[in-house]
Structures are given as structure tokens and as C-alpha cells.
Amino acid sequence: MNRLLRELRRARGALRRNERRAAWLLFGAICFVCFVLLVPPIRDRLLDRAQVSAAGWDARWTERVERGEGLLAEGRYEDAADYLEQLDGVFPARHVKHRRDTERERVLRALGEANLALGRKRASLEALRRAVEFDERNYQNHFALASAALELGEPEEALAAFERVLAIHPSHLPTVAALIAHHFERADYRSVADTYEAYLDAYLLHDAGIELGDGIGRADVRVDGRYHEIDVPLVAEAAAAASGRSLSIDVGPYPTRIASITLMPPLRAGILEAAPITLDSPEGWSNGTEAEKASGTVRVPIGSSEIEVARARIVLRLLKPVDAESWGLIATSYRNLLEGDALEVARERSAIIAVASPGTDGDSS
Questions:
Q1: Close Cβ partners of 104 (under 8 Å, ≥ 6 residues apart)
Q2: What are the tens digits of pLDDT across the range 169-211?
Q3: What is the 3-state secondary structure (H, E, C) of 20-60?
Q4: DSSP state of 243
Q5: Which of 363 and 341 is assigned the larger pLDDT?
Q6: Number of H helices, E strands in the chain
Q7: pLDDT at residue 364 in the model
Q8: Are strands 228-233 and 205-212 parallel, antiparallel or unpaired?
Q9: How far apart are CA 189 and CA 343, in angstroms?
Q10: CA terminus-to-terminus distance, the chain
Q11: pLDDT surpassing 50 at residue 331
């Protein structure tokens, strides 16, 4: 303490002895700052450099998150767990409103996955629970916790987490598949059927784009495997009626069945209303070919010559996807319940796909 006081007295004495020099140095610094701020070319250049430096410094967090995920992808679980644990301790996002909140969640989920691979049950569940606590609105956090809990022999926690996923995202197919497998394993066939029917009825909209030549329209279509009618105005450039030889419907990732299409001609002053044009097909239309499935588009020819169209009325249904393994359990459950009619209805509303990957979430966005 005495030493500190002596040093402070010495510094004060030095300042007094060089008081005039210090004043001139301070005055010069103020003049330099004013000059920089008042001369636009210099000021802008310095500010640009400062922004670039700040952006580069801030971007290091993204690079560090990707580094941790890279270690995990390479199978270096021990290194990944150590690295992600340290990163979580210093990561700036401590609240969900921080702009790097989603990256913090990625760190916690990756940390949980690394510890899971290492057989560290407690550490894995702890990291994933922290991800859920950090953002309870992100269904991915609940799904990661549910999957880990199920694998680690905690079925009650897993089921509760799966239910939270469906409360947020009722069309999340991987969760539905996990619940169906769980109920089927316990011979709870009623719960299998109820879970799947709730998934079929879950409210999900697809923003379908309709095109006819240069005419464009959009309509929301429910994805529930039931037929719905949409009435879409087709607006062309210069407010003219749309014209073309084929109608294109963007149905996104969903297998589609189109029952009927009616094209309404434009109304013109002093001219009797033209009759609507109904396109018929014995089997309707669907995106059945591989090219159409890949593009997510159904194309319907409307004739050999161009016609003008103001509106299109389309009756169609977008089918809910279900993986083949889950469908086998669903079909068996309906048969065990002796509900053949319900099985047939569910089959008509479904599109069987290869597998329910984590990215298969029933969302077209």
C-alpha cells in the first residue's frame, strides 16, 4: 500500500513538472481528432476500416461454431466436446434476444451430440436441456433432447419432449415417426392411429404459384390430403388477361392430385360473358414423373391455341408425406383395430416416401 502511494506521488510530481508539455500534447490530440472528423475523405476511410475490422472480429464466432461442428462431423468426439464446452463458456449470446442466439443453440446441440457419442449420458442431456431452456420456442431443441433421451433410456422425458415438438410444429414427420414406433412397440395401436390422424389434420399451408403464359397468381392450399378448391386471379403485365397454352402449378415438395381445372375468360364491356373452359382428364393430373417431382410443378396443357384467362378454379389435394417404415406400422395398427375404412382414407391422404430424415419437416419453406 505504501509503495502504491509513493508511485502515485511520483507520477503526480512528474505531471506537475511537465504540465505545459502535457497540455500541448492533449491540445494536439484534440486538434487531430477534429481534423479527421471534419475532413470527409479521411473520416470515411477510417470509419470503413473500423467497420471492416469490427465485422471481421465479430465473424470469428461463426467460424468457431463451424469449427466445433466440423470436429463433430469428422468423428473427433473428444476434441469436439472439449472445444464446444469451452466455446459455450465464452459465447456472447447469453439470452435468446441476442443476435447470435441461433448459433448458441447450435453449440449446445452439437455439444449434446458429441457427449452422446462418447456415452456421457448426464453431460449430453444437460447440454440439450440447456438448449431447450435457452429457446423453448425452437422445436429443433426439443427434438434433439427427445432423440437423445430416447436413446439413453429416458422414455418419459423423450415423450414429453416429442409432445412439445408437435405443440410447436405439428407436421414434423421425424417426431411423428418416433412416436408411432414407440406406441407400436408397446402394442398401443390406438395411439398409433390417433398420432397419425393428428398429423394428417395438422394445419399446414403451401403457397402455390399458378402461371399461364405471362399471367401469375398465388393461393394458399392446405396440406392435409383432402381436396380443396382454390380460385386464383391471373394477373398479366399491363393489366391484360393471361394467355398461354399450358397451366403450371407450383406444388412444392408435396405429391399432388388435381381433380379439375376451370378457366374463366375475362369480362369485357358490351360483350356477353364467355363460357368457362373446363379441362377434363379421366384420372386427373399429378406430379407423378421424376422430373415433375424434382421441380415441384404440375403442367397441364390447355389446347392447341392460346386462350385468354382471367381466373383459374382448381380442385386439388396436397398429400402428407410419410416414410415407408412408419406407414407399415400405421397400416398394421389399423388392421389390428379392425378399421379397414379408416386405413383406406389415411392411405388416400398420404404419400409414402423412402425415409423420414430430420430435414423432412412438412414445411415447404
A1: 88, 91, 93, 94, 98, 134
A2: 999 999 999 999 999 999 999 999 999 999 999 999 999 999 8
A3: HHHHHHHHHHHHHHHHHHHCHHHHHHHHHHHHHHHHHHHHH
A4: E
A5: 341
A6: 13, 13
A7: 40
A8: unpaired
A9: 13
A10: 66
A11: yes
Cα separation, 258 vs 248, whole angstroms: 12
d(CA 327, CA 323): 6
- Picking from 208, 178, 217, 204, the residue whose alpha carbon sits closest to that of residue 311 is 217
> Do 109 and 144 meet the contact criterion of CB atoms below 8 Å apart?
yes
- Strands 311-318 and 256-264 come out as antiparallel
Q: Spell out the residues 6+ positions from residue 102 whose beta carbon is closer than 8 angstroms to its own.
A: 138
Residue 187, sorted as left (phi over 0), alpha (psi -120 to 50) or beta, turns out to be left
Grid cell 448426464 in the structure block, residue:
122
Name which residue leads in pLDDT, 261 or 93. 261
Question: What are residue 243's DSSP bridge partners?
Answer: 213, 308
Backbone angles phi, psi at 74, to 5 degrees: -80, -5
For the stretch 256-299, pLDDT in tens is 989 999 988 887 665 666 678 888 776 778 875 554 555 588 88
Confidence of residue 46 (pLDDT cuts 50, 70, 90): low
